[in-house]
């Protein structure tokens, strides 16, 4: 690990050049793998290389590494990744590192990296092979309903071609027919339903290929591809723990799903507080539905929060994390946060300072969830 850290310290400041060299080697020597990647490499270009570097750095924590790389191996099945692809990637990784690690590279360092990559790839391959016994690499999903809630937000209802297992609080990756091999992550906006339909909230972001296609172009009858469910922002409802939920913007989607799931498991003796934030009242597109749920569920409280100027009738004002900090105490609760990364980070900080233990704070700020 000392050898890996020392070489990383040299490589990371020039990671852009190392990444470019890595992909140049990979595509030149193994052109058969080029078709696994999107035509435009703006997001994917950094993701694989940086993920491998981060995994190698974390190799001294076997349990965490197995969980992280196992999920990555299962997820890579949707790209068409095969066992035979791992060895070429490893060779090109080592050669790119050797080129940019300078005097920190030697026989011992190379051996350390090869051992780390062998561990990483073995975990990913084993997870993918195990997953293949019970699950397809992807599902086809037909859009059956497309509702525009605001100028930039749409709610999509999708019918998968076969049973799709997931939990409220999780997310999946979506690929559109307009941008092949470009996948983006979206949270489920409802708990599992008897009819098997899936719901997603999508906000079109600037220069976001997939999000703009889903909001402005998708229509009933279009077919998407769905990767397997992922994410650990799930709740053990059997414990009956009181919940505190912070949802900002379309981050309200998994919060809505968790509330539905809590209702299915019964709510007597339980309290669920939802703080739903946006800049302007018109952006609280899910507020009426949440208030409808609160009217039927006496254990559910919904508090809208507005941070921008304009009418705020019935809403609290201020930044969502700070507003939550004015209430409480929240001891004894389990907190779930979803929304813009800056909001989630501030919210986590507020809750920790209020004494909520870190193990009771859940969110899904994972690096591979690039917007777009």
TrEMBL record:
SUPFAM superfamilies: Ferredoxin reductase-like, C-terminal NADP-linked domain (SSF52343), Globin-like (SSF46458), Riboflavin synthase domain-like (SSF63380). It catalyses: 2 nitric oxide + NADH + 2 O2 = 2 nitrate + NAD(+) + H(+); 2 nitric oxide + NADPH + 2 O2 = 2 nitrate + NADP(+) + H(+). Its EC number is 1.14.12.17. The keyword Nucleus does not apply. Its cofactor is FAD; heme b. In the C-terminal section; belongs to the flavoprotein pyridine nucleotide cytochrome reductase family. CDD domains: Mb-like_oxidoreductase, O2ase_reductase_like. This is nitric oxide dioxygenase. It comes from Kitasatospora aureofaciens. It is an enzyme of class 1 (oxidoreductase). It holds the Pfam family NAD_binding_1. Keywords: 2Fe-2S, Heme, Iron, Iron-sulfur, Metal-binding, NAD, NADP, Oxygen transport, Transport. Residues 136-236 form the FAD-binding FR-type domain. It comes from the Bacteria. GO terms for molecular function: 2 iron, 2 sulfur cluster binding; heme binding; nitric oxide dioxygenase NAD(P)H activity; oxygen binding; oxygen carrier activity. Residues 1-129 form the Globin domain.
């Amino acid at each position: 690990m000392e050898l890996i850290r020392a070489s990383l310290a040299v490589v990371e400041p020039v990671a852009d050049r190392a990444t470019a060299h890595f992909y140049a080697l990979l595509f030149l020597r193994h052109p058969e793998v080029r078709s696994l990647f999107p035509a435009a490499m703006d997001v994917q270009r950094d993701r694989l290389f940086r993920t491998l570097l981060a995994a190698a750095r974390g190799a001294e924590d076997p349990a965490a590494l197995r969980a992280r790389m196992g999920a990555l191996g299962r997820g890579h099945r949707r790209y068409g990744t095969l066992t035979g692809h791992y060895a070429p990637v490893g060779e090109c990784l080592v050669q790119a590192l050797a080129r940019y690690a300078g005097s920190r590279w030697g026989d011992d360092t190379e051996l350390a990296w090869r051992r780390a990559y062998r561990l990483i790839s073995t975990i990913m391959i084993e997870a993918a092979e195990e997953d293949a016994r019970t699950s397809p690499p992807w599902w086809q999903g037909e859009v059956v309903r497309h509702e525009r809630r605001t100028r930039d937000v749409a709610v999509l209802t999708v019918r998968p071609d076969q049973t799709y297992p997931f939990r409220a609080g999780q997310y999946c990756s979506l690929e559109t027919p307009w941008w092949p091999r470009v996948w983006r992550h979206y949270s489920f906006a409802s708990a599992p339903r008897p009819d098997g339909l899936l719901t997603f909230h999508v906000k079109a972001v600037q220069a976001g290929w997939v999000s703009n296609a889903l909001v402005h172009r998708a229509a009933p009858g279009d077919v998407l591809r769905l990767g397997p469910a992922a994410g650990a922002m799930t709740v053990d409802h059997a414990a009956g723990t009181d919940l505190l939920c912070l949802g900002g913007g379309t981050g309200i989607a998994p919060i809505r799903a968790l509330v539905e799931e809590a209702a299915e498991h019964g709510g007597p003796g339980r309290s669920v507080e939802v703080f739903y934030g946006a800049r302007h009242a018109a952006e609280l597109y899910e507020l009426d539905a949440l208030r409808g749920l609160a009217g039927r569920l006496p254990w559910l409280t919904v508090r809208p929060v507005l941070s921008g100027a304009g009418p705020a009738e019935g809403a609290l004002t201020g930044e969502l994390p700070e507003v939550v900090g004015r209430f409480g105490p929240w001891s004894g609760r389990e907190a779930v946060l979803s929304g813009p990364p800056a909001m989630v980070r501030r919210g986590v900080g507020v809750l920790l300072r209020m004494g909520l233990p870190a193990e009771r704070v859940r969110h899904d700020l994972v690096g591979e969830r690039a917007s777009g």
